Structures are given as C-alpha cells and as structure tokens.
UniProtKB/TrEMBL annotation:
PANTHER family: LEUCINE RICH REPEAT CONTAINING 23 (PTHR46652:SF8), LEUCINE-RICH REPEAT AND IQ DOMAIN-CONTAINING PROTEIN 1-RELATED (PTHR46652)
Keyword Magnesium: no
Key words, A-Z: Leucine-rich repeat, Repeat
Coiled coil, from the record: none
Classification via Pfam families: LRR_4
Bias kind Low complexity: ranges: 32-42
Species annotation: Eucalyptus globulus
Record-given protein name: Protein phosphatase 1 regulatory subunit pprA
Comp. bias (Basic and acidic residues): 20-29
Region (Disordered), start-end ranges: 20-42
PROSITE patterns cross-referenced by the UniProt entry: LRR
Amino acid sequence: MIKRTNRFLSSYSLSLSIDHREGMEESRTESAPAGDDPATATAEDEGLAAAAAAVLDLTSCQLHDLTSVELPPTLIELDLTANRLASLDPRIGQLSNLKKLSFRQNLIDDAAAAAISGWEALSGLEELVLRDNKLTKLPGAHIFKRLLVFDVSFNEIPSLSGLSKVSSTLKELYVSKNEVPKIEEIDHFTDLQILELGSNRLRVMENLQTLVKLQELWLGRNRIKTVNLCGLKCIEKISLQSNRLTSMAGFEGCIALEELYLSHNGIAKMEGLSTLVNLRVLDLSSNKLKSIDDIQNLTRLEDLWLNDNQIESLETIAEAVAGSTEKLTTLYLENNPCAKSPNYFTTLKQIFPNIQQIDSKIFA
C-alpha cells in the first residue's frame, strides 16, 4: 500500500513572527528601486499576513494541550499532527471558517472524540483526519455536511457502523489498518473517488456497486479470495496485495485501469488482462506464475513486476510482452529460474531498448 503523505496544503504558518515580517518589510523598503509603488508592497504584506492567519501548522510540537496556543477565528486549516493530545480543545469547535482539520498521530480515544459531534459551527468542514489515534469506533462526523475527506486509519475500529451518517459529499475515505471485517454502510457515497480499506479483516468484496465514480480501491492485506468489483468500470488503481487470491478473474471489465497491484497472493496464471489496454503498472510479484501470458496487447505498460515467481525461461518473453517492448521502462524478474539465464541483462536490454531498470540494476 502506498504511504499517504500529509495532504494539508503547504502555506505560511501562523508561526511566522511579527518581528520577522517587519524585518522583511524593512529589507524590502531599503532595497526597493526608486519609483516602486509602496501600495504594491503593502498589498503583498497584507496577502502574506492573511495567508499566515488562515493556516496554523503545529506538526510535531509535542503539545499535550493547546492552552498556550492562540486559535484565531480566521483559521481555515489547522494541522495538529504528531503531538500528544488526549483531548480536544473546545475552542476548535468555534472555528466556523475551518475547512481542514488534522489530529493525526495523537492520543485521542472515543471519549475525547465524542466532542466532535457537537461542533455545529464547523458544519462546513471539508477534511477531517483522525489517523493513528486510539479510536475503537467511528467518531460522530455527521455534523459536517460538506465533508470531502475522512481519515480514521491506524486505529482499532472493529466495523464501519455509523458510516451511513457521514455526508454523501465524501470523495476520499481512509479506514486502513483497523479491525473491519465487512464492507458496509457505503452505498450513499456516490461521489467517492478513493476508498482505502487495506490491513483489515475483509474476506469479501461487496457493496461497491453504487460507487460509480470510484477511481482508487486499496484492499491490500486482507483475506479476500475472489475478485468482485460489482460492475464498476471507472477504477484506475486497484490494490489487492497480500490477500488469498488464486485467480485473476474479475478485472476484465475495468477498461480504465492504469495500475494493478496483486503481489503476495497464490495466483498461478496471468489471465483477464488483454482488455486492460490502459494499464501502465502491473505488479504480480510473489505469486505462483510459471509463464508470462495475456499481456501482449498492453501497449501502455511501463512497469512490470514479476519477481519471486516460478518463470522458467526468457525464450518467450519477447512475444509475451510484444505490445510494450518500446514502452517498458521497469522490469523485475529476479528470484525466478529465468533470472539465472546466461546473458540475462543483455538479453532483456535487447528486447526492451528503452528499459531503465531491471531488478535492482539501473541503467543510465
């Protein structure tokens, strides 16, 4: 599963001191060429000040509470990532202009998170991040009528119960690394674009049929045995790494698919791929493959990961990957019997003239 970075916009922090801004102003005044319009400089300063007053980034400040922190009512973004907060400052619930709020990597439990359901003034909040805390149930986010991003990954949540109350405006939902056994209460998210439920206890792919705008589906590290995309055709990225798949059947209709990650399963045959003409990345490493099949028509394929399988020979690889011999830039075949072939790298470079990386070896 690809690691998510902090999605808060980088901007001027409120920590930009008044003295520092005054120093910038003095420096600008001294160095300004004759004839420069002072009004322009003033407008720039006002713009900087406005940006600073709108964003407060307190990441990794080791705060146990916010008693020493001023929370201006003009705040649009508040980032409290990586602190030691075990309770929620009630003043946050009065920041009516707030659009983005992150409590990522703190010590917030269910009792502390209960305050969120009473934050009526924040009804316009668009992004709420409670990733990596101590939650054992979904917090009451129903108060936020315009929510676009909801992240409760890396907690101990045992089910998606309560998700039906979250606003249907949601576009990104992250509930990875919890204890969820079933995909449920998501049918009203018809605008959802990203669904991340990796590292849970899922056994079945279900209840996805109404997610008609879904573009990314991340279900790695679960217990899924069979692919069932419920008729969805707009998905561009799918991860089912580290599950219990033995067959690739089920992807044939995903014609918009660009990235497919299926490593660490029990797949013995490459199949159902010929219709995926937009595929750029295919990861089938650590499976039980003995040959390369069904990808000769994939003309856009750039990355092909087949390492740690049982592929015997390089003799048929040129034909097997015929459509992408010019496009392919990354190929992993290490830990297959074929990787011990004489002139291994030379042979592959001849087949793929634009290759940039074979296994761990990078070519200039």
